[in-house]
UniProtKB/TrEMBL annotation:
Organism expressing this protein natively: Actinotalea fermentans
Keywords: ATP-binding, Nucleotide-binding
Gene Ontology MF annotations: ATP binding; ATP hydrolysis activity
Domain of life: Bacteria
PANTHER family documented for this protein: ABC TRANSPORT SYSTEM ATP-BINDING PROTEIN, ATP-BINDING CASSETTE, SUB-FAMILY H, MEMBER 1
Domain ABC transporter, first and last residues per copy: 27-229
Protein known as: ABC transporter ATP-binding protein
Length: 229
């Protein structure tokens, strides 16, 4: 999707407002799951959650285990249908899921080529972005290694690199630095800061925030709703 386009996902329930500078707007998001072994019983995970992301900010989305952070993220990216609410986005979206969605027999290079084609990127842009990400996350030596032979930390690097590959306008990251060593953790924040400085928007999901100064603001997911600190 080109940066000048707007994608709107309208779900039953509420009409969402669109701010002129907003890159992503979510209003009144609701989601419930059926409880195992209980007929017609549903567990309400999200009950009117919402968020707005603006150019040049890094937002932390925090909450306890089971609070609905990952569910909310999946609704924002379109990987999961909500029961009600509206999600509106502008520009290209990059998504780093908590569990990498990769192919065990493909190498890192092959994943980048595959995802580059899926993004519709010219070959030259794929090569340039690949080289920058290999250097930025320090895993170029694993370019030809199959995914099933990577360590957990290197797999997390690939997972993040695939989300960063097309230089998206909005970057949605679900526990992106799980398994990172300290050097990679700092490299991660260098990449995030470089994108923030160019007007990109980044949403980072985490159980808790350690370096709060790195974030523009923090949003808590609690009781199915979102609360700004």
């Amino acid at each position: 999707m080109e940066a000048s386009e707007t994608r709107t996902q309208v779900l039953p329930g509420n009409d969402g407002a669109w701010g002129a500078a907003t890159l992503l707007s979510a209003v009144g998001i609701e989601k419930a799951y059926r409880r195992l072994g209980r007929r017609r019983k549903r567990a309400q995970v999200l009950a009117g959650a919402g968020i707005e992301l603006y150019p040049g900010e890094v937002v932390g989305l925090v909450g306890e285990n089971g609070s609905g952070k990952s569910t909310f993220m999946k609704v924002l990216v379109g990987a999961l249908d909500a029961d009600a609410g509206t999600v509106t986005t502008r520009g290209r979206i990059g998504y780093c899921p908590q569990e990498p969605l990769v192919y065990s027999r493909l190498t890192c290079d092959e994943h980048i080529e595959l995802f580059g084609r899926a993004y519709g990127m010219p070959d030259a842009d794929v090569r340039r972005s690949r080289n920058e990400l290999y250097e930025g996350l320090n895993f170029a030596r694993y370019a030809g290694v199959r995914v099933d032979r990577l360590s957990g930390g290197t797999l997390s690097k690939l997972n993040l690199a695939l989300a960063l590959l097309p230089d998206p306008d909005v970057l949605l990251l679900d526990e992106p630095y799980a398994g990172f060593d300290w050097d990679t953790y700092l490299r991660f924040w260098d990449l995030v800061e470089a994108r923030r400085a160019r007007g990109k928007s980044v949403l980072v999901v985490s159980h808790f925030v350690v370096d709060e100064h790195r974030f523009t603001r923090i949003v808590d997911v609690r009781d199915g709703r979102t609360w700004s600190r």
